[in-house]
Amino acid sequence: MTTSAINGLNNPSTTNTSTQSSQTLGQAEFLRLMTTQLTTQDPFNPMDNTQMVAQMAQFSQVAGIAEMNASLQTIAAGLGGNRLSDAASWIGHSMLVESDVATPLRDGTYAGEFTLEKDATNVTVSFVNADGAVVHSQALGEVDSGEAAFAWDGKNEAGEYIGGGPLRMVVTATVGGQTVTPKTATWTTIAGIQSPANGGESRLVTGLGLLTPDKAIRLA
Questions:
Q1: Residue 40 confidence (pLDDT)
Q2: Which string of DSSP letters, residue by residue, matches 81-149?
């Protein structure tokens, strides 16, 4: 018994699919069949033109219905899979995304994390506004390698809230006597969801703008 025969036994659906496909009459086959019929007909008793026109009209109608069904299946696939409901369940949560821009969360605080490849000293987290001025700075001292979290309540030493907008986060550290800039990520609030009318991927409305769900490192 050959390998193809064994595969056919193990996968009967493949054999059935091939048989069904070979039995399908497409537009090219229909036109070839009609051309053959015209060239082999009796010249003294030709086929009625009315019958030929009716056959062509019927075939066009069937082909149009098939194309319409294919289009409807494509639209259904785009709306299926709970694509909207899954993303909509994220509304009201916060997502951690790779970014050096921090935006205030619902309670006005700023939060994020940075990643150190090696143990570091003199680690400092600074928040810089659009004018380039440092509005807040945190000296964290020595920090072990790996992920390290940070948070700021958005207030100055007098307890006055000075946050309220996006701030650039700058992290500096000393590793082996050299100053390094670790990779950073910040938390941003998910306020809504935007789904394109053309069936494209849904986007989350966040403090950092429109983001696709795959940008989320973690949810909270």
A1: 72
A2: TTHHHHHHTTTT-EEEEE-SEE---TTS-EEEEEEESS-EEEEEEEEE-TTS-EEEEEEEEEE-SEEEE
Q: What is the pTM of this model?
A: 0.60
d(CA 203, CA 191): 11
Q: Alpha-carbon distance 43 to 91, whole Å?
A: 74
The total number of structural domains in the chain stands at 2
64 with 119, same domain: the answer is no
Decide: helix, strand or coil at residue 205.
strand
Instruction: Choose one of 50, 79, 108: the last residue of a domain.
Output: 79
Enter the DSSP assignment of 166. Answer: -
- Taking the C-alpha atoms of residue 125 and residue 138, their distance in angstroms, rounded to an integer, is 5
Domain stop point among 79, 100, 117: 79
Q: Which residue has the tokens 């605080």?
A: 109
Q: pLDDT tens for residues 98-151?
A: 999 999 999 999 999 999 999 999 999 999 999 999 999 999 999 999 999 999
Q: Residues 193, 88: contact at Cβ < 8 Å?
A: yes
The token pair that represents 133 in the structure block: 């001025």
Name the more confident of 132 and 61.
132
Over residues 150-156, mean pLDDT:
92
What are the residues whose beta carbons fall under 8 Å from the beta carbon of 163, sequence distance 6 or more?
A: 104, 108, 109, 110, 135, 152, 154, 155
CB–CB of 171/101 below 8 Å? no
